[in-house]
Specification:
Rossmann fold
Length: 271
């Protein structure tokens, strides 16, 4: 027979394991693929936060932030189309609709969106298309759909030349060395970024990109929203200034005794 001390020790071990199992399960990420062919990864618990990566890398770029975020949030990171483990652009698609497919797959009604560069563009378009499904938007180095550079980006020409010649690896390597990707001031992360770029060389093999942009694009939609907000602000300011002018006139009348007859009857004609 097992002695009482051994049974007690066994009981403590079993109970400790039962308490640890939920914590272990929480720490382990779950993965899946949406109906649109978008690969995603989820960890943590709490309010949903979606991380959207930049062009030419994938969901793994967020690795340094995951441990901190998943302590408080349900963290979702996914590979944008053509990147990582997601499907390529073989048919018409929209980046913000790909994001919707991920939220739908996870039954997430509303989330905070955090995007970097092209990921910020996706977050902005989604917030415009589906405002009721967004709690907050955090944009880092954002671009806007519909924006056209005023001058050609000559530093990209060698990259696209290599891609056009069928040298996807060469194109990726050249891209990793461009000013937009090279981390001159953070050598500790430079190797990681380059590895991410080189593991996504297939993006340089796509000869066509049937993306369906937001219409009207964000740059026009936001310009309209800002103009409308500015007009509303000006109207409100004018009304406020007008009311202050009326108040000043009444106060001057009170000070000069013009409202004395009303005061004599117990009325408060002055503010």
């Amino acid at each position: 027979m097992t002695d009482p001390d051994s049974r007690a020790s066994l009981c403590v071990s079993v109970c400790a394991l039962l308490f640890l199992v939920p914590a272990i399960a929480l720490a382990q990420a779950t993965t899946g693929t949406s109906s649109a062919g978008i690969f995603y990864e989820v960890s943590g618990a709490g309010e949903p936060v979606v991380l959207i990566h930049a062009f030419s890398v994938d969901r793994r770029m967020w690795a340094p932030q995951i441990a901190l975020l998943e302590k408080r949030f349900r963290v979702v990171r996914y590979d944008q189309r053509g990147h990582g483990k997601s499907d390529g652009p073989s048919a018409p698609y929209a980046q913000h609709e790909d994001l919707r497919s991920v939220l739908d797959a996870l039954a997430i009604d509303k989330a905070t969106l955090i995007g970097l560069s092209a990921g910020a563009t996706t977050a902005t378009d989604f917030a415009i298309a589906y405002p009721n499904r967004v709690m907050r938007v955090v944009l880092a180095s954002p671009g806007l759909s519909g924006y056209v550079p005023s001058a050609p980006l000559t530093w990209t020409q060698p990259v696209f030349k290599a891609a056009g010649a069928g040298d996807a690896t060469g194109a990726a390597s050249l891209w990793a060395d461009t000013p937009i990707m090279a981390l001159r001031n953070d050598l500790s992360a430079a190797a990681t970024v380059r590895d991410l770029v080189m593991s996504n060389t297939r993006i340089w093999t796509y000869m066509a990109n049937p993306v369906q942009p937001l219409n009207p694009p964000a740059i026009k939609r936001l310009r309209s929203e800002v103009s409308g907000a500015r007009d509303s602000w000006r109207t409100g300011l004018a009304a406020h200034q007008g009311s202050r002018g009326v108040a000043r006139q009444r106060n001057r009348g009170c000070a000069s005794g013009h409202d004395s007859s009303r005061r004599s009857h117990g009325e408060s004609g002055c503010a």
